[in-house]
Design a protein that fits this description.
- By secondary structure, the protein is α/β, with parallel strands linked by helices.
- It has two domains: about 70 residues, membrane protein fhac (Ubiquitin-like (UB roll), Roll); about 130 residues, Rossmann fold (3-Layer(aba) Sandwich), CATH 3.40.50.11690.
- The chain is built from six helices and twelve strands.
- β9 and β10 form a beta hairpin.
- The longest helix has 24 residues.
- It starts with a helix and ends with a strand.
- The N terminus is likely disordered.
């Protein structure tokens, strides 16, 4: 019993020591000037909306670039709020280092679909259905075209984009989503000269599972160009139209 109490007391003392040590090490020294800003951007290889130079430019334009200022006078809250005003940034953590730098950790919104709707509205959709303003086109994103309203984009297109992006097979196979005037979903594959008609945007995961099985069990045997249209509109059916 005494041994357990001793071990518990030792663990508590060690925890207190580490808290105090970290606090002391991260406390900026008085009179020390900020020498640099280090920006760490999450998912930069996958997304690339934000670059380090843009982080510095945003801070400079908003008069909160910390370089050359006393560390103890720099407002980390102001830096974080300024960067969060950017529509492509989802989260920011800023902190000071003992060697006179300010580090900024930035997370970006992750796009799943690039929308080119009728009427000329071009934008990105993230996983939650959030609209991200148009930038240059991303070749590795599926493109959505056709009759796409803001409500349809949030409620139906965003979930479909997640399903495609999260599945290795579909993320490589689908290059375009088209929405017809009556709100039905069509997929244009990268491999195979056919259209996949999913019908209404319901039971999408089930339909994609059936279609993947059909690729494996059917098209691999008869050829991926045998049909011009493959419909999964109806439950438990796959209707094919020959070329």
């Amino acid at each position: 019993m005494i041994k357990k109490v001793f071990i518990l007391l030792l663990l508590v003392l060690l925890s207190c020591y580490f808290v105090v040590a970290i606090t002391v090490l991260n406390r900026p020294q008085e009179g020390v000037l900020c020498s640099d800003v280090e920006a760490f951007i999450g998912d930069s290889a996958q997304i690339g909306f934000i670059k380090k130079d843009e982080i510095i430019n945003i801070l400079t334009q908003n008069q909160c670039n910390p370089v050359g200022k006393n560390l103890d006078e720099i407002s980390l809250v102001k830096i974080e709020k300024t960067l969060l005003n950017n529509p492509y940034i989802s989260d920011v953590t800023a902190y000071k280092t003992p060697n006179g730098k300010v580090n900024v950790i930035v997370k970006q919104y992750i796009p799943t679909v690039y929308v080119m709707a009728e009427g000329g509205q071009n934008y990105f959709l993230d996983r939650s259905g959030r609209v991200l303003p148009h930038l240059s086109y991303f070749a590795d994103l599926v493109v959505a075209t056709g009759h796409i309203t803001p409500q349809f984009a949030k409620q139906s297109l965003a979930p479909l984009g997640c399903l495609l992006q999260d599945d290795a097979f579909w993320s490589n196979q689908v290059q375009q989503i088209n929405i017809t005037e009556n709100g039905e979903v069509e997929l244009v594959p990268r491999v195979g000269n056919h259209i996949i008609a999913l019908g209404p945007p319901t039971k999408l995961e089930e339909k994609l599972t059936r279609m993947k099985e059909f690729y494996t069990e059917g098209l691999n045997k008869v050829g991926w160009n045998k049909y011009s249209r493959i419909s999964l509109k109806y439950d438990n059916q796959i209707v094919c139209k020959k070329r």
